Amino acid sequence: MPTNKWITIKGTRDGLTLFMNDSCSWEELLGEVEEILSAKHMAVDEPLITVKIQLGNRYITDAQAETLRKIIKKHNKLVVEEIVSDVILKEEALRWKDETDLKLHNRVIRSGQVLEITGDLLLIGDVNPGGKVVATGNIFIMGNLRGVAHAGATGNRKAVIAASYMAPSQLRIADIISRSPDSDGEGVPMECGFIEKDGEQIIMDRISSLAKSRPELDAFERRVMNG
Amino acid sequence: MGEAIVITSGKGGVGKTTTTANLGTSLALLDKKVCLIDTDIGLRNLDVIMGLENRIIYDIVDVLEKRCKISQALIKDKRFDCLYLLPAAQTTDKSALTPEGMIEIIDELKPDYDYILIDCPAGIEQGYKNAVAGADKAIVVTTPEKSSVRDADRIIGLLEQEKVEPPHLIVNRIRNHMVKNGDMLDVDEIVQVLSIDLLGIVADDDDVIRASNHGEPVAFQPNSRASIAYRNIARRILGESVPLLSLEQKETFMDKVKKVFGLQK
């Protein structure tokens, strides 16, 4: 049985975790993966085991990740669940930042105007009837929301819409649309809209309730923690 | 050097032309040299309201196509020596008017006038673009109706992209009894939604229509409510600070008597 120089294997209840040394070369690492896996044969009828790979401070490209997955899959009844690395490309980091940044706009969105942004939107001003704001993240409006707001436009159902004065003609979160009731009701101050867990519709509540339903509103932090 | 102000609204029928005629008249009453330009080609009205229809020989398209000099097309008002009208064409092809052409005309007029008021056609197409092209400032007219406020909002958005200065607002045709009952938007609500400065409010007044039909802008009448409102707006354009006119109708002695006898509430 060869000694593991670069890889440490730990078994947990959920499967295996492979800790890979990040100071050796990639080829050495792949070689050792092959070695380990060919050495440990498993019974054919054993269930699939999920494997988590911890790369440490090593960056691998998508192609490299693919080879790694292939090698592991080829040998045994192992399935790679995820490959985790502590480092990302600057480019990707900037994209994350852009996607999760709070963008401040200070203007009135009038009828016929559309404000589209990547990330979270903080609008100081009103959205008038016929106007529209679209963000890939959350939407916070310090002003009157009388037009259309679309949060999580790229599919993020966790996004929320909050406004100092909520009287929208339509709210959209990800792919869910809700419209105002037909009776010409007054708006409500300090309200927010979000999709409840596993829900299929947008729920309105006081802004203060967000602390409970969305404790991790800061998208950047969430992204860093969860990838 | 004069100032070119475009009067626009987006929606039709809210009183752009009436406002143009009355502001022109009011400014002329204040001894300013004023030129009114009608840019609503094919549907010109300003000349009718001013009562100058029968004096038209050349129009704005003739000027642009060099069939006449600008001074030949300008019509002097019947009442004032300092008020002129450049009428729109009624029959010629609409495409004859271009933003460049408008800028040319306005630049030519500016040295000779204190104010150039441009009456804009309804809509946001070519006609609107022409009217706005040469203007330094804009006045948006709206009525206290949802549809009209919506269109005003749209127009303000478009104007903000073009003009350096944010436009000013005139709320026209306010019916006080309807506002009181909550059947009509009130002025504060409109100003809050549109979030631009209010230049003035004009009550819905039968005198306006009566006067327009006689080809004599209401601003001439000394005492009608609309007339006072228009003259106040003109003074505000000149930079004076004039308080808004109360919309309450004054109770006459007869009203009080009637009230006592229970004939009127």
User: Mean of residue pLDDT of chain B?
Assistant: 90
Shape of chain A: elongated
Tell me the CATH architecture of chain B: 3-Layer(aba) Sandwich
- Give the biggest sheet of chain A: 6 strands, mixed
Structural Rg of chain B = 19 Å
Beta-strand percent range of chain B: 15-25%
**DSSP, total strands of chain A:** 15
Top-tier CATH class of the largest domain in chain A: Mainly Beta
Strand order of the largest sheet of chain B: 3-4-2-5-1-6-7-8
CATH homologous superfamily of chain B? P-loop containing nucleotide triphosphate hydrolases
CATH topology of chain B: Rossmann fold
The number of domains of chain A is 2
* Largest two-chain interface: A-B, 13 and 12 residues
- CATH domain fold name of the largest domain in chain A: Pectate Lyase C-like
The end-to-end span of chain B amounts to 54 Å
Task: Please mark out the parts of chain B with pLDDT under 50 across 5 or more consecutive residues, or reply none.
Answer: none
Write a structural description.
The complex is a heterodimer of chains A (227) and B (265). By secondary structure, chain A is an alpha/beta fold. Helix content of chain A is 22%, strand content 35%. Chain A folds into two domains: 7-84, Transcription Regulator spoIIAA (2-Layer Sandwich); 94-215, 3 Solenoid (Pectate Lyase C-like), CATH 2.160.20.70. Chain A has five helices and 15 strands. Chain A starts with 6 loop residues before the first strand and ends with a helix. Chain B is of the alpha/beta class. In chain B, strand 6 (137-142), helix 7 (146-162) and strand 7 (168-174) form a beta-alpha-beta unit. Chain B is globular, with a radius of gyration of 19 Å. Chain B has a single domain (3-260), classed as Rossmann fold (3-Layer(aba) Sandwich). The A-B interface holds A 108, 110-113, 125-126, 128-131, 144, 146 and B 150-151, 153-154, 156-158, 160, 192-195. Chain B: It holds the Pfam family CbiA. Chain B: ATP binds at residues 11-18.
